[in-house]
Amino acid sequence: MHFHDNDGHVGCYVPGGTGEGSPRISNAAPLPVVKVVEYDPSWPSKFQEISQKLEHYLSISGVEYTSIEHVGSTAVPGLAAKPNIDIIIEVPNAEQAAKAKEALIHEPSPEEHYKCWGDGGIKGRISMKLHNRNELPDQSVYIINQEDPEGRLVVQCHRALRDTLRLPQHEALRAEYGRLKVHLATSSIDGVDYGQKKNPLIRRILQTAGWADEEIDKKEALDYRIPGDDDLPY
Q1: Per its UniProt record, what Pfam families does this chain match (predicted)?
Q2: Domains in the chain, start-ordered, CATH in brackets?
Q3: φ, ψ dihedrals at 140, nearest 5°
């Protein structure tokens, strides 16, 4: 199912899709296509494959890191998601964060190296994307400095969402979140719009996880992206 708005943007939901072969239209603005697919059981193993490469790049560069985690919807069994593996690398301080960024830029092969997009429009992280932005991304890597309060908030939010939606007692909430994602894939102008329109339900999920509204407000304030602005990848 595909949606074309008046500006030529495309959103799609692909039942059982793998995220490959994303449709494009020639007169579309250069914004990422929002694609949501049914849960793919291969996502955890794909994360492990990427994680092993990241461990290698960090190790040979002498980077100190505390964890490499699979976060986002692809880390929740049964949940529809964009076919993009979200990964967090936690490091102990700003010096190691800078070293980790350089490692991902310089250590991989020319075909697999990463490009830094600053914080990617969300404070508290270093956003790393595969260098070829013209291809639909299959992974996003975020470097987090544990000494940065905003970075800690980013990590806490990712973990709270993932861990809450994984619990059997929250199956109904997980299903509701999946339905919302499918709907937004066909009604959002780009990935930023898609992400920000999830905020009301994400608030409920975080409240279920025990977060206070004040904490959630701080989390939402980290995101300064503007829908329709293609200068930052989502």
Answers
A1: GrpB (PF04229)
A2: 42-223 (3.30.460.10)
A3: -135, 130
